[in-house]
Amino acid sequence: MIASAANSSSEFNNSKLIPLFSAEQIQNRIQEMGAEITRDYAGREPLLVGVLKGACVFISDLMRAIDLPLAVDFMAISSYGSQMRTSGEVRIIKDLDTPVEGRDILVVEDIVDTGLTLSYLLASLHARGARSVKLAALLDKWERRERPVQIDYLGFKIPDAFVVGYGLDYAERYRNLPYIAVLKED
Ligand SMILES: O=P(O)(O)OC[C@H]1O[C@H](OP(=O)(O)OP(=O)(O)O)[C@H](O)[C@@H]1O
Ligand code: HPA
Ligand SMILES: [Mg+2]
User: Fold this and answer.
1) Which InterPro entries match (predicted)?
2) What's the sign of the alpha-carbon dihedral 2, 21, 33, 136?
3) pTM of the full structure
4) pLDDT tens-digit readout, 39-59
5) Atom of ligand 1 nearest to the CA of 113
6) Phi, psi of 119 (to 5 degrees)
7) How far is the CA of 52 from the centre of ligand 1 (A)?
């Protein structure tokens, strides 16, 4: 079911999945990103910080495309209600196990949308004394940006549409799709 849905539009519980990036396109782009990160961080040992839950699939593939010694850790972030969200306030619900002071941090995210999550997270890591903080994001939904976020390594720019798959969810579903699709509700 999942594999056959990868290459064509399909019905999935009353929602329509319109494929945007195939598993192969994603893997090819990640290999390119990994090669660029390997070149840029040569001689250093970056700490990759995955933002749960959406980035779990992307970071698994990206770290294996980086040919360097590195460490991996995870954070989980929760947005407050919609009013608080517009103020950019988010809450850390799982912090790093690893001290960041003096480390070269590469935050790994599935998508930058309004930018509220990432602008908060990147500022917080800088404030903790990281030597450098950069961002690798698979998707950039740039038309919806409310806060500027510098994406140092980008997979794909996408239009203003709700996307799922490859870690991205709708109500916790679809994270396990091996490709990325636009979700259209019927
Ligand atoms: O740029 P923004 O508007 O802040 O949106 C981007 C954030 O939203 C999604 O996470 P979500 O809160 O859905 O959590 P999840 O990763 O567990 O799905 C995504 O993974 C980013 O972390
Ligand atoms: O398009 C999206 N899909 C899933 N999660 C998201 N979080 C922000 N934008 C999106
Ligand atoms: Mg989500």
Assistant:
1) HGPRT (IPR050408), Hxn_phspho_trans (IPR005904), PRTase-like (IPR029057), PRTase_dom (IPR000836)
2) negative
3) 0.91
4) 999 999 999 999 999 999 999
5) 1
6) -65, -35
7) 9
User: Ligand 3 centre from 53 Cα, in Å?
Assistant: 7
Alpha-carbon distances, residue 177 vs 1, 120, 121, 186 (angstroms) = 10, 29, 27, 20
d(CA 63, CA 74): 13
Ligand 2 contacts CB of residue 177 (under 6 A): no
Question: Distance from CA of residue 65 to its chain's centroid?
Answer: 15
The complex scores an ipTM of 0.98
Report the amino acid identity of residue 125.
Answer: L
Reduced to 3 states (helix: H, G, I; strand: E, B; else coil), residue 98 is coil
> Which residues are registered as beta bridge partners of 121?
none
Q: Is 113 a catalytic residue?
A: yes
| C-alpha to C-alpha distance for 8 and 186, rounded to whole angstroms | 17
Helix (H) / strand (E) element for 122: namely helix 116-127
* CA 34–ligand 1 middle distance (angstroms): 22
Please work out whether the CB of residue 51 comes within 6 Å of at least one atom of ligand 2. no
* Structural domains present in the chain: 24-38+45-80+87-160 (3.40.50.2020)
Residue 70 to residues 3, 43, 65, 105, Cα–Cα distance (Å): 32, 11, 12, 10
